[in-house]
Design goal:
alpha+beta; globular; 49% helix; binds flavin-adenine dinucleotide; four-stranded mixed beta sheet
Length: 384
């Protein structure tokens, strides 16, 4: 039922995306350029502030609607990775920020004057083992002094603000490893002027991401979001929304691959018949379709529970797992259906193929989802 809903949102996002067709995304990919015009357009149309309440200048929509926006961007051939951060990063500020912080930042984020696209959590030496992160923020009077290193800090060069997770109490001094970390809302330009350096990481997809070095970067004490030491809890609070939104992007990718594979299979004539007449070509496409549709059901379930403020950790994780898997399988099928032409950039399949692959690694790798399910849903012994 839900699949056919939100028609107005779908049509509006599709209309916007028509100005950013395959050639736009291919050019950006070739040049490793940030899709600035697209991000500006999607911000101006108000879609990136879908989750910001109306009283702060946003659209005040639910996660379900927000997920439809990202799904449609990817379904139209775009890459939400350039801008999705704002949808979920802003959740931390929304849920845990003070009224003063919300009034100061949210209307500007909603209008596009400020971007909150970046989130610094992952570190090179600790990876997925987040609670062992080494970046320290030490309180000195009315400031915190930050030292440490982050890796894969995405969109930071196209954002004014970032969410930063740092230790405020050393690991050795806390009772539980999840304690003693804090979240800060950092003004990127001031940080760059005061000791933050970035080193871009060239990667498999056109994704602006960086190593970041904090060398005595001073940030005002008011940058702290919520209570000192509670940052890890706040981070976890935002993850269900992130998982469900990424699942929706994967669903968009999945349908894009299936559409492309189906059209090509109808048109391409080999042995005097469309290749799609061969069951060896049809069946994998049909199978992919089944998998994307099934994953989509879990995505709707996760979004609905989230919007009803009910627990949705299991569903959000399962949606992300299923959707990332389904989109990757659809990508493989689409490439195979195109034969050699699947490798030709002109067909754009190889770009989307690379882009959708990311979702099994980031944000959050597949194993960590399985581990969450094993421990928290099935009650199996904790592994780490
Ligand atoms: C393009 C891109 C953009 C990113 N953007 C951001 C960003 O903006 N902000 C940010 O903070 N991070 C970002 N990340 C980081 C991303 O979240 C991590 O790469 C991801 O969570 C995996 O962590 P890792 O790379 O450190 O892998 P590692 O922790 O080194 O793990 C390597 C592999 O081992 C597996 N593994 C590790 N431990 C276990 C275990 N106990 N059991 C089973 N399997 C295990 C993992 O699942 C993974 O497959 C980005 C990454 C990429 C590639």
């Amino acid at each position: 039922m839900l699949q056919n809903s939100f028609q107005e949102i779908r049509e509006a996002v599709r209309a916007l995306c028509r100005a950013f067709d395959s050639s736009y995304w291919q050019k950006a990919d070739e040049e490793r350029a940030y899709p600035e015009e697209f991000v500006r357009a999607v911000t101006k149309a108000g879609w990136l502030s879908a989750l910001i309440p109306q009283e702060y200048g946003g659209a005040g929509l639910g996660l379900t609607e927000a997920s439809v926006v990202l799904e449609e961007i990817n379904r139209c051939g775009g890459n939400s990775g350039a801008c999705h951060g704002q949808m979920y990063n802003m959740g931390t500020l929304l849920r845990h920020g003070s009224e003063e912080q919300k009034r100061k930042y949210l209307p500007k984020i909603a209008s596009g004057e400020l971007r909150l696209q970046a989130m610094g959590v992952t570190e090179p030496s600790t990876g997925t083992d987040t609670t062992r992160l080494k970046t320290m923020a030490v309180r000195k009077g009315n400031r915190y002094v930050v030292n440490g290193q982050k890796v894969w800090l995405s969109r930071v060069q196209h954002s004014e603000l970032m969410i930063l997770l740092a230790r405020t109490t050393p690991l050795a001094e806390v009772k539980r490893k999840s304690e003693g970390m804090s979240i800060f809302l950092v003004d990127i330009r001031s940080a760059l002027a005061g000791g933050l350096t970035l080193r871009p990481i060239r990667n498999m997809v056109n994704h602006e991401t960086n190593e970041a070095f904090f060398d005595n970067v001073e940030i005002p004490a008011e940058s702290l979001i919520g209570e000192e030491g509670q940052g890890f809890k706040y981070l976890l609070d935002g993850l269900n929304a992130e998982r469900a939104l990424i699942a929706a992007e994967c669903i968009g990718d999945g349908y894009w691959f299936i559409d492309r594979a189906t059209s090509y299979a109808k048109e391409r004539i080999v042995f005097d018949r469309p290749i799609g007449q061969n069951q060896g070509v049809q069946f994998p496409i049909a199978e992919s379709y089944i998998e994307v549709e099934a994953a989509n059901l879990m995505r709707w379930k996760a979004c609905e529970l989230f919007d009803r403020q009910q627990p949705c950790g299991a569903e959000a994780n399962m949606a992300k797992y299923l959707a990332a898997k389904a989109s990757w399988e659809a990508a493989n099928v689409c490439l195979q259906t195109h034969g050699g032409f699947g490798f030709a950039s002109e067909y754009d399949v190889e770009r989307k193929f690379r882009e959708t692959r990311l979702y099994q690694v980031a944000p959050i790798s597949t194993n960590l989802i399985l581990s969450y399910l094993a421990e928290h849903v099935l009650g199996l012994p904790r592994s780490f």
